[in-house]
Amino acid sequence: MTELSRIRNLSIIAHIDHGKSTLADRILEICGAVDRREMRDQYLDSMDLERERGITIKLQSVRLDYREHVINLIDTPGHVDFGYEVSRSLAACEGVVLVVDASQGIEAQTLANCYLALEHDLEIVACLNKIDLPAADPDRYAGEIEQVLGLPAEDILRISAKTGDGVEALLDAVLERIPPPQGDPTAPLQGLIFDSHFDQYRGVISSIRVVNGTLKTGSRLRFMQAGAVHDADEVGARRPAPTPMAALGPGEVGYLIAGIKDVGEARSGETVTDSARPADAPLEGYREPKPMVFCGLYPVEGDEFEDLRESLEKLRLNDSSFTYEAETSGALGFGFRCGFLGLLHMEIVRERLEREYDLNLIATAPSVEYRVIRTDGVEVQVDNPADLPEPAKIDQILEPYLQVSIITPATYTGTLMDLCQSRRGEMTKMEYLSPERLDLRYRMPLGEVVMDFFDQLKSRTQGYASLDYEPVGYAPANLVKVDILIAGEPVDAFSAIVHRDKAYEYGKKLVDKLRELIPRQQFDVPIQAAIGSKILSRQTVKAYRKDVTAKLYGGDISRKRKLLEKQKEGKKRMKNLGRVEVPSDAFISALRLDD
């Protein structure tokens, strides 16, 4: 056990792509935690998906020794969709290192993460990264940080995480400015689980921060919220390889393996105590995150439903910010309705399920949660368009709104205002952070943001604008449900709730797309978009036709007409008996997010 005055617990926070993972790499090197031969870029990003996309998805903790001190470092994600990961890691820290790109300055997520740190009452050590770049302007952006965040410009460190320049000075500032943790080693054990993942051979492996008391290998533990009792098979720290230890004292961060096979017993926010001498009360856990975007996930092969259920259970242990419940679709069979924090989060979870658990999935179009007030005065929550009551029974539909903050170079102001207004946004504030950069604030429906707003934002500003958002409640809107009918039968997987002004555009686009994707049958297949009984758009997949008149030569026209009439009767009978099977790849192509 390490004495409290020599421990520092800190988290690295920044906007996406400002150099958090590179800085973590340099700190690992300086502290000698990783052998030079084994070092690689983004060392703490362990998932293939993280390395491919160049983003951090999961928080990662590591214990380092530096100048007779122990530094417990947590590398956090930067994207707005993974804000819940950041808030959990901050609960295990006393301070943060705020990283700002010296060539770009403050971005939207920098502000959001910084306010999160201030909410947790943490000490902030700010630094400007990438000072080795020709475009870097550290003096200007230090002044911007002082103006916006109130941190003195002379206290902001200048570093280059790529070359290692100034990183040692940053570590010295961490030891000097971030306070050591508080805790009583003689009190009953209280440990907070802030992350977990499932290992096929060892069960649940939990990341734990000991607040009071001592966590010893071999002791009998009680999980206070779950009410379960388990033995601590192994207690240790990540250095970054898991290293077993005899005990973890107050203020220390490490991992716990207790042979837990039921994933529900060691969720994030759980308090661990000694069963022989339990603590009086559990620690304050985490506020449950509220899903913003919903979609249906269905296995392509119907018999993979149970595999999908097990995979979702295990993945939820590792990422507790998504929700799921079973649902049935007439077109797609059995599946799950899942809720996510954002569109990137949804994409990542789906990809992780397919890669890590070897599943083949269909995802329905993303939707958001609406509140519907029926004519009898009852309010119902609807996150699946198929559950929307009939138009005659609806008095009012309320949709969720966001407060959107966009930080952008001033040159792109016009194009961004045009984008926000086309998405039914109302401007609430426009503030210049410096003569060249401004902060645009809009109030905007969540349904307009979840589709392709972020992609549009990046393409219109050549990647320079940044986005952050937070929910601000519900407001009434003129919304309708657009159904897609194939051969007269509604297909629930393609239904969507959209604003009345955009209903025709959405319906036409999907109908045109489906006409290309649905294979031809022996009879004509009409594809229609409709609001209730009103048809908005129609396309027809033409039938295969045999040239029945090919064998005729010359003669009376009535002979041709007789054969064509006979063929027409046959097609009509076939249409009454035939069913249109929509192939699974047509669902996948029609519901592709990027099209």
Task: Jot down its keywords.
single chain; 595 residues; alpha+beta; Rossmann fold; Elongation Factor Tu (Ef-tu), domain 3; 5 domains; eight-stranded antiparallel sheet; six-stranded mixed sheet; 31 strands
What's this, in brief?
By secondary structure, the protein is α+β, with helices and mostly antiparallel strands.
Q: Which CATH architecture of the largest domain is right?
A: 3-Layer(aba) Sandwich
Q: Can you tell me the CATH topology of the largest domain? A: Rossmann fold
Mind describing the biggest β-sheet?
Answer: 8 strands, antiparallel
What gross morphology would you assign? globular
CATH class group of the largest domain:
Alpha Beta
Low-confidence stretches: none
Number of helices in the DSSP assignment = 14
In order across it, which strands form the biggest sheet?
A: 11-10-16-7-8-15-12-13
How many β-strands, per DSSP? 31
Please report which band the strand proportion falls in: under 5%, 5-15%, 15-25%, 25-35%, 35-45% or over 45%: 25-35%
Question: Can you tell me about this structure?
Answer:
- By secondary structure, the protein is α+β, with helices and mostly antiparallel strands.
- It has 5 domains: 4-177, Rossmann fold, CATH 3.40.50.300; 190-274, Elongation Factor Tu (Ef-tu), domain 3 (Beta Barrel); 293-366, Alpha-Beta Plaits; 371-477, 2-Layer Sandwich (Alpha-Beta Plaits), CATH 3.30.70.240; 481-590, Alpha-Beta Plaits.
- It contains 14 helices and 31 strands.
- The strands form 6 sheets. Strands 11-10-16-7-8-15-12-13 form an 8-stranded antiparallel sheet, with helices on one face. A 6-stranded mixed sheet has the order 2-3-1-4-5-6, sandwiched between helices. Strands 21, 22, 23, 24, 25 and 26 form a 6-stranded antiparallel sheet that branches.
- The mean pLDDT is 82.
